[in-house]
Amino acid sequence: MLSLVTTTWLADQSGAADLVLLDASLHLPAAERDPEAEFTAGHIPGARFLGLSSLTDTQSTVPAALPRSDQMQDRLRALGVAEDSRIVLYDDSALRTSARAWFMLRRAGLKNVAILDGGFAKWRAEGRPISKGAPSPAATNLTVEQDDTLVRDKADVHANIGTGTEQMVDARDEGRFTGAIQDKVHGLAGGHIPGARNLPFTKVLHDDGTYRDPAQLRRLFGAAGIDLDRPVVASCGSGVTASVLLFAMHLAGKDDAALYDGSWSEWGADPSTPKETGAAA
Q1: Alpha carbon distances (Å) from 251 to 117, 136, 213, 245, 257
Q2: pLDDT tens digit sequence for 154-185
Q3: In terms of CATH, what superfamily is 151-267?
Q4: Which is nearest to 214 in space by CA: 251, 245, 250?
Q5: Which listed residue, 4, 7, 92, 218, has the most CB atoms within 10 A of its CB?
Q6: Fold classification of 4-125 (topology level)
Q7: Three-state SS annotation for 6-24
Q8: Using CA atoms, how far apart are residues 256 and 253, in angstroms rounded to an integer?
Q9: Other Cβ atoms within 10 Å of 129 Cβ, number
Q10: Rounded CA separation 275/267 (Å)
Q11: According to CATH, where is 3.40.250.10 located in the chain?
Q12: What's the chain's Rg over C-alpha atoms?
């Protein structure tokens, strides 16, 4: 299975016993949307609701931290995910949150994971069938062993500043990155981690929410000052849209890019961390 699948492919695979379709929608509070209620009101047939908003480690000091291994294991078991499952993720979010779920699942050791290109919006726009209600899949005994080699913490990022060992790419919009506007999403001043480059996550997508092709993606990262042949760490506000850049890099052939999960919500809130404003140097 490819990492990015089309609505036509998904429709053709409907009903396959090994296919697990997960709705990974998540919205900013300002959107005033309830993804679970929306799922119950209408979703792609056969889909199950991932509940991405509750997959965070509340024991961590990192805001909206990636989930613990036991959290991922319990959730995936309850959703009927088995070791040999082919998992397809989709969302109906402006944040393209299926990429966050993709990173979580890959971190949990699941390799056969794809994103539905264009998500629920494209499926709906094409007039494809929609189901209602909340399914109850049979639980599995899946075992999860998480790999954090591609996760960076604040200390890692701080130690990297000025070394050039790992490039930093920030997925937020230009205004928040430069500090021209406040980061109202997280209640912080704008700005960025010293040395970071800026590639707003929306640029790796077409207007309909589908991903650009690999050649276009490589050009976009290059234009932002990121060399995909060297180590890269992605950040954003809280680790969500940075995952869109991670998935875009994956499509462009780079599978060793890392995530700074705390991102600006952690870095910007710490008065001891160095910060820059203005365009990337």
Answers
A1: 12, 33, 8, 10, 12
A2: 999 999 998 989 999 999 999 999 999 988 88
A3: Rhodanese-like domain (3.40.250.10)
A4: 251
A5: 92
A6: Oxidized Rhodanese; domain 1 (3.40.250)
A7: CHHHHHHHCCCCCEEEEEC
A8: 9
A9: 9
A10: 8
A11: 4-125, 151-267
A12: 18
Give me the amino acid identity at 266. Answer: E
Look up residue 14 and give its two tokens.
């409907």
* Residue 85 confidence (pLDDT): 97
Catalytic positions, written as ranges: 236
**CB-based contacts of 220, cutoff 8 Å, min separation 6:** 199, 203, 204, 212, 248
Instruction: Residue 91: name the closest of 37, 31, 22, 33 by CA.
Output: 22
Tokens 């979703």 found at = 43
Amino acid in the structure at residue 1: M
Instruction: Spell out the SS3 assignment of 235-279.
Output: ECCCCCHHHHHHHHHHHCCCCCCEEECCHHHHHCCCCCCCCECCC
CA gap 270, 67 in Å, rounded: 22
223-228 LR contacts (CB < 8 Å, sep 24+): 224/169, 224/197, 224/198, 224/199, 224/280, 225/167, 225/197, 225/280, 226/167, 226/169, 226/197, 226/199, 227/167, 228/252, 228/253, 228/254
Q: Which residue has the tokens 């050649």?
A: 215
pLDDT tens, position by position, 97-155: 999 999 999 999 998 999 999 999 999 999 999 999 989 899 999 999 999 999 999 99
Q: Which two tokens stand for residue 108?
A: 């949990």
Give CA torsion, residues 44, 71, 34, 234, to 10 deg.
-90
Residue 123 · residue 21 · CB < 8 Å: no
Q: How far apart are CA 233 and CA 241, in angstroms?
A: 13
